[in-house]
Amino acid sequence: MDCSRLFRAAVIGVILAAPAIAQDTAVCVCTPQHTHIPSEFERRSAVNISFVQTRPTGAFQKNIGLGYGANLAYLFRVDQAGWFSLRADGGFAVYGDEHFHAPLSPTIGGRIQVKVNTYNNVIPLSVGPQLQWPSGRVRPYVHAGVGGQYFFTESSVEGEDGDWDFASTTHQSDWTGAWVAGGGVYIPVHEGSAKVAIDLGLHYYNGGRAQYLKPGSIQDLPDAKLLITPMESDTHMLLVRIGVRIGQ
Q1: Is 144 in contact with 121 (CB distance < 8 Å)?
Q2: Number of domains in the chain
Q3: End-to-end CA distance of the chain
Q4: Which of 26, 51, 102, 215 is most solvent-facing, going by the fewest CB within 10 Å?
Q5: Segment 6-32 mean pLDDT
Q6: How far apart are CA 50 and CA 140, in angstroms?
Q7: For 82-130, how does the pLDDT look when each residue is reduced to its tens digit (9 = 90+)?
Q8: Do the domain assignments include residue 1?
Q9: What range does the domain containing 52 cover?
């Protein structure tokens, strides 16, 4: 047989076999992809974050004004479709404040000035069921529950240059129970893996009697003494919310 023909056949065979050999012998250097698979608890959970305005009603309205703050709610979806959830809310609002400047100490005179801040605060809390229309472009909901309101007034001192607070005193605090009812609407804006909806709603807190302070309830007397005049009434109030819901 012609040796040149054998050589050419061998070369062609090697060329044709090379891709297959390379494919079989190639080493894949890959980075494994770890995809997080949400648990059943995560899939049934949602969080609401809202800006809030507190509006006292009845006798409470005669004593204090509007307050502003934030509210955080957690919801756990009980059924698969999302009609029924368990809801827990916690908020914080300031309904009054006072500020003045004073020397840090009479011993050193007026060379070091500080800013004295006094805030009148309320922390509303509630837990209970929520019913929701689970589909559509606008999804109304209602909820009810039990909870309470914690009132406290605190003064703190900060430096004139805007330094952080370095001393504080709580002048008055009180707690009262409440039953709660409310409702609102969710407006979905994103329906992907992380669902997002605008939340517009309100709570009504039918609070019991409590003592609390307002601007002017603390008077500074000579010799660093204070005259504190607390107010007392039922603490019925509306809490208006504008925020977002993330999850479910």
Answers
A1: no
A2: 1
A3: 78
A4: 26
A5: 51
A6: 17
A7: 899 999 999 999 999 999 888 877 777 777 788 889 999 999 999 999 9
A8: no
A9: 33-247
If you search the block for the tokens 């062609």, which residue do you land on? 12
> Which residues are within 8 A (CB) of 91 and not within 5 positions of it... i.e. 6 or more apart?
52, 69, 70, 71, 72, 123, 124, 125, 239
Query: Which residue type, as a one-letter code, is found at position 69?
Result: G
| Residue 114, domain member (yes or no) | yes
Residue 12 lies in a domain: no
Query: What's 176's domain CATH number?
Result: 2.40.160.20
